[in-house]
Write a structure and sequence with these properties.
4-stranded antiparallel beta sheet, binds flavin-adenine dinucleotide, Pnp Oxidase, Chain A, disordered C terminus, 229 residues, 7-stranded antiparallel beta sheet, alpha+beta, 11 strands
């Protein structure tokens, strides 16, 4: 039976505001599934790089993909730190010091595996498309042999993982609460604009439901208590 929590390791044990950090799979999965962009941190010849890129979660694996000519494509078997961040609001305090953000983030540590098996590779690439727009992979042309050969897919098993979540109003210093300065939270959410058809699109092609009804509708966490940066 799958354990509901990721094991806390020395590397994932929170030292700063540990009450904010969670290791349960449900919280981690929800953040990964709502996010679009991950940042992949790794080191080459002592130089750290952090590459923003797309991804998808399938079960307990994060799939990354890139051109075989990109750094991501060239470095299977590398130690990485992958983060995903959702920004839920700007936290405006009475003092400059206590300004903050409401967020949900995930950090995953581990070693990537190059995906060579054609079936797993194809499923991973389909998952990347589905992650962005659910329902789309069934309607688009799949990758051909040349495209698949030019695409490297890496798998990162979710083993050393943590989530961190900040919710709620600003936490000012007690004497500052009497200051006549507006304080509170400016909520932020990702919402789509009107779809813009490709100028080269045949005008007889209708807007598909998966575009018309696209949304990222996960409920935003709302904290009631006070919370520190
Ligand atoms: C949008 C956003 C804005 C932020 N702004 C600030 C800021 O202005 N100042 C500030 O000090 N911090 C900020 N943070 C929090 C920041 O990400 C770190 O948690 C914090 O700096 C402590 O880092 P640390 O390595 O010292 O923590 P430690 O407690 O030493 O980290 C130990 C372990 O806890 C886990 N962990 C720590 N942070 C996170 C995280 N964010 N997500 C998932 N797991 C985590 C990791 O497994 C990490 O290895 C922000 C986070 C986000 C997402």
């Amino acid at each position: 039976m799958e354990v509901a929590r990721y094991r806390t390791t020395e590397r994932t044990r929170a030292r700063r505001l540990p009450e904010r950090v969670a290791y349960d799979r449900a919280t981690v999965h929800a953040i990964l599934d709502e996010g679009f962009i991950c940042h992949v941190g790794f080191q080459v010849d002592g130089q750290p790089y952090v590459v923003p890129t797309g991804y998808a979660r399938v079960g307990e694996t994060i799939y990354l993909h890139g051109s075989t000519g990109s750094r991501i494509g060239l470095w299977p078997g590398m130690d990485v730190c992958v983060t995903v961040t959702l920004l839920d609001g700007l936290v405006l305090a009475r003092s400059a010091f206590h300004h903050s953000m409401n967020y949900r983030s995930v950090m995953a540590l581990g070693r990537t595996r190059s995906v060579g098996d054609p079936d797993e590779k194809e499923a991973a690439l389909r998952a990347v498309v589905e992650h962005i727009v659910p329902g789309r992979s069934a309607e688009v042309r799949g990758g051909d042999r040349r495209e698949l050969a030019a695409t490297a897919v890496l798998a990162l098993p979710l083993t050393e993982v943590s989530a961190k979540v900040r919710t709620g109003p600003p936490k000012d210093d007690e004497p500052d609460y009497v200051l006549p300065i507006w304080a509170g939270v400016l909520p932020l959410a990702l919402s789509p604009g009107s779809p813009e058809p490709d100028p080269l699109l045949d005008s007889s092609v209708p807007l598909p439901p998966h575009v018309a009804s696209w949304s990222r509708q996960a409920p935003r966490p709302r904290g009631r208590g006070r919370s520190a940066r």
